[in-house]
Amino acid sequence: MTDKPDLIYLDYAATTPVDPRVVAAMSRLLEMDGDFANPSADHLAGRRSSVHVANAAEQLAALLHVHPDRLIWTSGATESNNLAIIGAARARQHRGQHLITMPTEHKAVTDVFRALERQGFDVTWLLPDECGALDIDALEAAFRDDTQLVSIMHVNNETGLLQDIARIGESCRRRDVLLHVDAAQSVGKLPVDLGQLPVDLASMTAHKMYGPKGIGGLYIADRPGCHIEPLMFGGGQQRRLRPGTLAVHLIAGFGCAAEIAATSLAEDLEHLTTLRDQLWAGIRDVPGIRLNGDIDNSFPGILNASIADIEGESLLLALEPLCVATGSACNSQSQEPSYVLRALGRSDAEAQSAIRFSLGRQTRSEDIVVAVRRYRSAVSKLRDLAPVLAA
Amino acid sequence: MSIEPYSTRVRALFDTPAHAGGLDDAASSSIDDQGVRIQLFAQVEAGSIRGLRFRAWGCPHVIAAAEAFCECYEGRQASDLSDFTASELMQSLPVPIEKSGRILVIEDAVRSLGKVLCGTSEPHD
Question: Measured between CA atoms, how close is B52 to chain A, in angstroms?
């Protein structure tokens, strides 16, 4: 071990700690005297468990402003994305096989579309502007008579950029095209009113909003033509769309996290905005720094910046004890420059030097002071180390 | 299973690279290849390397390897530079095999420096 100070966790976009109230709610359901039974069972214990599932659906539905019946429990946003995209594409393939998405989506979306391409679907990949936003005119131009599904994320997981889901959804509705939204980075963090937004399918996960890992949700709008086919078979649970014994404790944890989010959303946003502004004010004058995204149109919990002439892996190590993400995609095993930042027009070097700071409820102003100091000193150290070579 | 991508030695060399920087009136070599930029400086007196410094742009293993090289060869004979091989650094730090190309860039820079100092770049038999 080193003598470095305690870690400063600034990677809330990757995952969040579980709220102690959520832990307590889940723990009660795991023990013999708790409601651990299979909620599909007809006996009393099963019926008691099913109450927790129903309560959680109401809690999550209240956060999203939808009816609880419109929610499907999954293992997380990756499964929700797979179920929504493949399920909708298959359900509507008799009408057409054209799909639309962006190359800046999460891998849990882009890889699904690539799999569908291999199965014969035709996918249009719309390029973003330099901040990552979708050009609505480009979307309008991409629609075809056989277009069936558009999938656009709400908040970009690397840059925090917010897409205009309302306008995108309106365009889709005018053409009777389904809109799927990967809302993994927005549900529980931003107001997401699926009762008002023209969204047909929305993916979400608990562990990005202080709930447990291993549980996610899929919203399916109650609207003609909005159907999906299941990807798994083996039981009648959840209207056969996602069979399998329900994980009552995880579902209850998700519900509890949703209820907490509903009450703390405004306070959380104010807190994150203050900290994000403090962070950017502290580093924005570092020579060669470049913001990735659009600070005026972003979820304030994410700040992503590239820095000229700095090697990303060395920067990450020099930043310790800060726990931040690099521009080497979301897969830290990969040293490949982030495909999201490359799609925004950043060079390999710019993408590779990018650092994503993501903040959360437990982030304190003192943490940001350390982060600013550490970032500035790391950049300075690595620049001092670098050779000045003739061109 | 180790959760650390860097050994204690790599971390220490990266954290406090005592030989980082330049030297006045020194022989030097520079290489920019494989995403690595390396510059070596050597002051030699009576065939002995009195001072050895480096500047580097690269991953932590590259910086640590450059520091380890300087640490090891400062004070030795300039002719010893031709004995240097990347494999000794790869093993001693250690450096993961997928980064061997980057450490070979350091070997090239050392050979180049040896050539400047002694007029030879070939290893001794």
Answer: 14
